[in-house]
Amino acid sequence: MRLALRYRLVGPQGQPPGGERVDRALWIAQDRLTGGTVVLKCARMGTAAADELVAEGGRLASLAHPGLVQLADRFVDVEGLGALSGVAVVGFASRWVDGTPFDEAVRGLPVDRAMALFSKLLDVVDYLHRRGLLHLDLKPDNALVVDDEVVLLDLGSARSLDAGPGEAGGTLGHAAPEVLLGQAASVAADIYSLGRHALCPAHRPACVCGAGGHRASPGDLGRGGGAGACPGPPRIPAAGPSGRSDVGPPRV
Fold this sequence. Notes:
- The chain is α+β, with helices and mostly antiparallel strands.
- It contains six helices and ten strands; from the N terminus they run H-E-E-E-H-E-E-E-H-H-E-E-E-E-H-H.
- Strands 1-2-3-5-4 form a five-stranded antiparallel sheet. Strands 6-8-9 form a three-stranded antiparallel sheet.
């Protein structure tokens, strides 16, 4: 079935300004076949973006965990749709998750309830590790809370445990230094990011800047904190001529 017949676009359509060529797009759409809401990820056939989406869709198809976003469809279409109309596209649809980012969901909760949610996040990440995958983009927007359950999204940055060095990725402020620098990563990289979840402004007991002396406050880490607020994680130095940096063990 053609994409334009099955899906009705209802969300952002990713059209670049000035009519520039677009190779990749993401939409929220209604699935006319099932009546559900999905997130569509599409890429122009024959591009690097297409290869990435094929890989991401394949990962989702091979996984099954109640705390992981569900794959709804994988497709190839010669006519495309939306900003990619008239070109061959490849991609997949995943179930829309109407949840709250993890940091917002736990803000103000009693510690025992917050840790119960964090334990559920740990469980799905542990599942990925046992299946030989690193997520590598663990951040509050990718861990949504729905009715006291946690759903992990976005395997676009995921790598196999034995993948070695790759392209720089992750999200600044959440990803481990080796991920941001494109170096070989291990389970420790996801643990680093999970630590950033556990140390969110609502509950973390001390600073993450490594300098000491700062206490947690709602203004920390770029939320507008005043004097004495934690200035954030340490700056990541540039790689030297050898391709390595002077980044030491994460300081949390």
